[in-house]
From TrEMBL:
Keyword hit for Protein transport: no
Name listed for the protein in its UniProt record: L-cystine transport system permease protein TcyB
Gene3D superfamilies cross-referenced by the UniProt entry: MetI-like (1.10.3720.10)
Organism from which the protein derives: Periweissella fabaria
Coiled-coil intervals: none
Similarity section: Belongs to the binding-protein-dependent transport system permease family.
NCBIfam families xref list: HEQRo_perm_3TM
Pfam families, alphabetized: BPD_transp_1
Amino acid sequence: MHNILQYLPQLLGAAFKYTLPIAIISFVIGMIIALITALIRISNKRGFVLVIKAIFRFYVWIFRTTPLLVQLFIVYFGLPYLKIAGIAPDGIKLAPFTAGILTFSLNTGAYCSEIIRAAIIAIPKGQWEAAATIGMTRRQALQRIILPQALRTSVPPLANSFISLVKDTSLAASITIIELFEVSQQIAAANFQPLLMYSLVAIIYAVFCTVLTFIQGYLEKVTSRYTIA
């Protein structure tokens, strides 16, 4: 018990200084990327938009088909070797925190864009047609009718994505970010009690995710308040 009380402040300090901020910032940025990606991919416009759609489709494909750990290594360890004349002659070197935020945001954006896109597509086409009959443009219908419904049905999977992201931040230790798991590794190396330290970290993650699960349940109740059963 003494050991737990001794190391708990260090672990919680790392969690609140790095783990949670990384998760929150990455999720917010990822959601912006996801919304833009989803809207572009459902666009019915032709011409140059098709090229943009292809680029975003490739982005989603590459981030959904490669491991997050590999993505972190490419961004942090690989980009410094990508030398671009006139732009980055010495390679693209990012601070660990920046590299982590960038990678987690892009990864989250790719997965969440599919959640939002699927939710939008699931809205009956009759609602688009009804909006058009009363003079709404496609953009107005999207903003006033389609997106509010799609985002409401997206709450459970998006909340699950955020909970998963909180746990995935443990991978940031691989690029030297001193977050919760990295601190536990350092303490375990010093006190030779890996079972205690890793079990304590697991409990902290479990508490965080349990709290987030309760918040998710509350959000689901609020957003489904006016849903007709």
